[in-house]
Structure formats: structure tokens, C-alpha cells
Amino acid sequence: MTSTPLSHQTVAVFGASSGIGLAVARGAHALGARVVAIGRDHARLAAALGDDAMRIATCDIADEAQVAALLRDIGALNHVVVTAGGVVGPSPLASLDFDVARDAIATKLQGSLLVAKHAAPRLAPGGSIGFTSGVLGRKVTANTVVKTVINAALEAAVRQLARELAPLRVYGVSPGPVDTPNWGTLSDAARRERAGKLAATLPVGFMASADDTAQAYLFAMRVRALTGTVIDLDSGAQIGG
């Protein structure tokens, strides 16, 4: 037996209000898991999930007291996934707003580590912790130092924590461009135009959807031998133009 079903397992998803996190929550629920969908804004979560039968919880992932209290309240877990992250626009170092950088690091990098710290004691044997990095962690792109540092650090944490927290499993998923509404301040028209240009540079010829990307997390949760690695689900962005 190389994989396990998610039926009757408890999965907590941080960042479930939209995009990849919402798709992971819905995908795990469809596979029979008891899902706790977590975000900062209860109203936004409720609107996104609609009539889906999932538990909703609010938490600022950068606040350790909130993370610890929520995970105590949830109790026993089988899997936890972190997709939460702030929006960081491109910026050269010379004009980098370090307040924005600190907020981004606190949310995505520090937040992921806080979740791992407080979830690990509550995870069942064979349980997993899933981080979300990104193609900019390894593909050099001008004016993206904050995203690069965050993603590269998370991938290093995956390898280190897979050893430290063993036999719990720790993995990462590295998406490339994903077709979601979460593109900062871009209008819908500007987002579609940019998505079309990006899709033309990708070997697969399209941008992955949030549902496409969620499949990597659902796979990783169910494959008991997977740990200490990062799954590249980037539509070929690392080898694209």
C-alpha cells in the first residue's frame, strides 16, 4: 500500500479564502476529508466556500498566539497545508519598501514555520505539512528579491524539517504562474492580458488553474513515501522563455 485515502482524515488549510488554498480545501473535502478552511477574514471565507460543508476558522498566520490557539482548538490532525502569502510587487533593491518586505516575510515564511511548529505535535503518524514556495525561488528574475528569498528559504526549510520532524512528512509545492484573481491591484482586463502573455512563454501553452495546482498537494498528502522534496508544478516555467 503506497497511498492512503483522505476519507475521515482532518486537513487544515491556511490561506483557504481564494486561489490555490481554496482549491486544496475543496479538493480534500471532495476526497472525504474533514477540512478546516482557515483565513484572516471570516466573511470572505464564508463567501468563497458557499454551501460547502467545511469548518471555517479565522487566524492571522503571522501571529504566533493566534496560530497556537487555533491549532489547539482544532486538535488532532492528519495534514496541514499552508498557501497563505501576501502580495509583493516587483521592485529593485534600491527602492524596496522594507515595511512591505517584512510583512511578506512575516506572512509567508514566518507564518509557514509557525504553523509547522504548532501543528507538528498534533499530527497523526504519517501526517504531513505542506508549504508553498514558487518558481521565483530558483528562477532568477529581476526585481523579485523578496519573493526569491521567501521561496528559497521555504524550500530549504522543507528539507531541514523533513529530517527534524521525521517520521512526520514535510513537502513543498512550487507553482509557476497560476490563473487566479489574486494578482494584486491589476484589473480583470489587465490580468487577462498579462495571463495570455505569460501563457505564451510556457512549454505547456497555458497557465495552470488553482485546481490544477491543488492536485500536487492532494497527491502529496496521500503518498506516504513523499517527504523532504518540492514538487514543481509550474507549467514548465523554469525551462520556459
Backbone structural class:
alpha/beta
Biggest β-sheet description: 7 strands, parallel
Strand composition percent:
15-25%
**Which CATH architecture is right?**
3-Layer(aba) Sandwich
Number of helices: 7
Structure write-up:
There is one protein chain. The protein is globular and about 45 Å long. Helix content is 41%, strand content 20%. Helix 1 crosses helix 7. It has 7 helices and 9 strands; from the N terminus they run E-H-E-H-E-H-E-H-E-H-E-E-H-E-H-E. It has a 7-stranded parallel beta sheet, sandwiched between helices. Strands 7-8 form a two-stranded parallel ribbon. The model has no long low-confidence stretch (mean pLDDT 91). The protein has 241 residues and is of the alpha/beta class. The N and C termini lie far apart (40 Å).
Characteristics of this structure?
alpha/beta, 241 residues, 7 helices, Rossmann fold, globular, seven-stranded parallel sheet, two-stranded parallel sheet
Short précis:
With 241 residues, the protein is α/β, with parallel strands linked by helices.
Blueprint (SSEs and pairs):
Elements: E1 10-14, H1 19-30, E2 34-39, H2 42-49, E3 55-58, H3 64-74, E4 77-82, H4 98-119, E5 123-132, H5 145-164, E6 169-175, E7 178-179, H6 188-201, E8 208-209, H7 210-222, E9 229-233
Parallel strand pairs: 1-2, 1-4, 2-3, 4-5, 5-6, 6-9, 7-8
Helix pairs in contact: 1-7, 3-4, 4-5
